[in-house]
Design goal:
about 675 residues; mainly alpha; Helix Hairpins; two-stranded antiparallel ribbon; 28 helices; 2 strands; about 60% helix; globular
Length: about 675
């Protein structure tokens, strides 16, 4: 690499061009993470102006006999868009239009909706990519005809059999034409695993006494568990393709020929198309579920009296029920009823419906989504195109979607999620023994409220009792659970990454426990420094409140608030006599810090940059990794170099987030240099 100073002296113009190219590639090139964050920032900025402008237009009746400040408008819109749930003002003091804007933000900012947009973009790019390839590939034209085949044949299963027959005929023709190259198959390079020599505790870590999880018993236990989680995928049937696939332990297709590659691309396109409709139907179903069960119940005499007594001023029961449905499914934590769910303590109907929406909207979203696809596969006609497409989704979920995992990992995720929820419930019941407000509750109400609070503790932010009534030890337990709330989902997402080895630098063949440890280490490194830096800044800014011991202000409460914001949970120790979060009493500069915390916290659960479910068809990184993992099959009868060149040229036309260096089809493996 030439010396920058020397290059600047010898050729200033070229040095300037190199610098500008570097800045463009480094900071202006969009990837998934940057595009995701840009989407949130732009929407928050626009909606904050709308909410603030509505407050100015409607005059001083909005909030505390004064206009809603822009900082509070920005804080509320950021909290809604990131589905955090901290509120610097009471939502009941806002106008109906402002509440409606926040409701829309909760819908377009939640995990199911945003991930659905990712699928929509990938599907659109996939179709555009296939259209480009189809211009130069007779094989692809036949496959596209299969994709667009009359769906009326699906009910009888004839379409699937006809497609397989046609694909086999094409494959036979290609095999005969490339018989001279049939044996030219480059096997993937096998990287030998690291040596597993015995090591001693004084040779590992910091060389101190081993922690409980470093003991031989613990390591063996975790190794058995994680190895069983990532055992080799062995699906019984692959009816969606005409060739017999060769899969590795992560379900990656190996040694694909040209025809196999194109055929698999058609199947994946159909899977994305089906998944898009499933995600739309999934959200509409649960929104409808909440509205149907909550809106009529909200108009019952008893419920209307509770709403009127809890918040005088004419809160519309139907609007409360609809907003509660949206905020619970989005795990948003915000509520037009200032007291949240406290007035409904001990009311099973409302708490069960709201708790169920919170589970299916985020913490159990991957589990219920896979269950939905599995049910659909059982219900559609056997052998139909749709059933084969659903089978592909179930067998190769992480090729298509961020939050869809293989069967075994989904079961483990469910077990871990239930374990955390039960732990939170037991903590509520046991640690609050002797607390007057908790002991005053009837046994049934106490159990029900504890279970509901356990669901709200993870990410929904709904609460059933004032946190000032809880024991200090319970608050500490809640703090820890809020911090790790997203870890089960994030670790599963990282571990099931098709390109896991390259994403974290593992050697191929390394054990699963090492992979989990590496993911956990990187996630902790990503989280801890930022969270405690934010806590440090807020503590400096709010020093006066803390030293004066103003109501609600102490170091633990500030740490609790920052952790809740970073975990996008929305729970708060609050301020005595007020319903809004502790953030409402923060200085404006502290609120700015909290804005950064909420936005970054919303993005900590995203997949790594090297993840096939977010890469666009034609992206250079996707092609290179598919080639690295997939090996190379036989050459096509068509001119491969011409096809590659034409596909590479089409990158400049497809736009979006693709790299300008792409030179081949999404699934095309390249030969390794010898």
């Amino acid at each position: 690499m030439p010396d920058p100073v020397e290059e600047l002296q010898q050729n200033p113009r070229e040095a300037k061009n190199h610098f500008l190219r570097y800045m463009k590639d480094e900071f202006l090139t969009l990837n998934f993470y940057r595009a995701h964050m840009l989407y949130f920032i732009v929407v928050i900025a626009i909606s904050s102006v709308i909410v603030y402008g509505e407050g100015v237009k409607n005059g001083p009746k909005e909030y505390r006999d004064s206009h809603l400040s822009y900082m509070d408008a920005l804080f509320l819109t950021c909290s809604a868009m990131t589905t955090t749930g901290l509120n610097s003002v009471n939502l009941g003091d806002l106008s109906g239009f402002q509440q409606a804007v926040l409701c829309v933000l909760l819908i377009i900012g939640n995990i199911p909706f945003v991930s659905m947009v990712v699928v929509l973009i990938r599907q659109s790019m996939f179709r555009k990519r296939m259209s480009e390839v189809m211009k130069h590939s007779r094989t692809m034209q036949r496959l596209m005809q299969d994709i667009e085949h009359n769906r009326q044949a699906e009910s009888s299963g004839e379409g699937s059999r006809a497609n397989c027959l046609r694909q086999r005929q094409v494959a036979d023709q290609l095999d005969r034409r490339k018989s001279s190259q049939a044996n030219r198959v480059d096997k993937p390079v096998k990287i030998q695993p690291l040596s597993k020599r015995r090591t001693f505790h004084h040779q590992t870590g910091f060389g101190f006494v081993p922690t409980p999880w470093e003991t031989k018993l613990a390591r063996n236990l975790f190794k058995r568990v994680f190895d069983s989680v990532s055992s080799e995928l062995k699906p019984e049937q692959h009816n969606y393709i005409s060739f017999k696939p060769h899969l590795d332990s992560k379900g990656r297709f190996l040694e694909l020929s040209e025809h196999d590659r194109l055929e698999l691309g058609g199947v994946e396109y159909r899977a994305l198309q089906a998944l898009l409709y499933i995600l739309i139907g999934y959200q509409l179903f649960w929104y409808t579920f909440g509205v149907v069960f909550l809106v009529p119940y909200a108009y019952r005499t008893k419920t209307r009296e509770i709403l009127r007594d809890a918040q005088p001023g004419g809160l519309n029961p139907g609007w409360w029920a609809f907003f509660s449905t949206v905020t619970e499914f989005a795990n948003g934590g915000l509520n037009v009823l200032n007291a949240n769910f406290i007035p409904f303590s001990g009311m099973p109907y409302i708490l069960i419906i709201a708790g169920a929406l919170a589970l299916v909207g985020q913490t159990q979203f991957p589990i219920f989504l896979r269950f939905t696809i599995w049910i659909m596969k059982k219900c559609v006609p056997k052998g139909s195109r749709l059933q084969n497409t659903l089978q592909f989704l179930l067998q190769h979920p992480r090729r298509c979607f961020i939050y869809l995992f293989p069967s075994r990992q989904t079961w483990y995720l469910l077990a871990i999620q239930i374990t955390i929820d039960i732990t939170a419930w037991l903590g509520f019941e046991v640690l609050n023994i002797g607390m007057p407000d908790i002991d005053a509750l009837p046994t049934g109400t106490r159990i029900l409220d504890g279970l509901f609070q356990a669901t709200g503790l993870r990410t929904s932010g709904a609460y059933i009792i004032a946190f000032s009534s809880l024991a200090p030890a319970c608050l500490v337990a809640y703090l820890v659970i809020m911090y790790i709330s997203s870890y089960p989902l994030v670790m599963t997402l990282r571990k099931t990454n098709t390109y896991e080895e390259r994403s974290i630098g593992l050697e191929e063949g390394g054990d699963s426990a090492a992979g989990i440890a590496s993911h956990l280490q990187k996630q902790l490194a990503y989280d801890i420094w930022f969270q405690f830096f934010a806590f440090f800044l807020v503590s400096i800014i709010e020093r006066g409140h803390i030293l004066r011991k103003d109501p609600g202000f102490d170091s633990f409460s500030v740490l609790f608030e920052v952790t809740s914001a970073y975990g996008t949970v929305g729970l708060s120790t609050g301020v005595a006599g007020e319903d809004y979060s502790l953030s409402g009493s923060f200085a404006s500069l502290s609120k700015v810090v909290m804005l950064f915390v909420m936005v970054r916290g919303r993005h900590r659960g995203l997949p790594l940059a090297i993840d096939r479910s977010i890469l666009l068809p034609g992206e250079e990184l996707m092609q290179r990794l598919d080639a690295e993992y997939g090996g190379r099959g036989g050459a096509s009868s068509e001119d491969p170099q011409e096809l590659i060149t034409n596909i590479g040229e089409s990158d400049s036309q497809t736009g979006g987030l693709k790299s300008t260096e792409a030179q081949q089809d999404p699934e095309r493996p390249t030969s390794r240099s010898r």
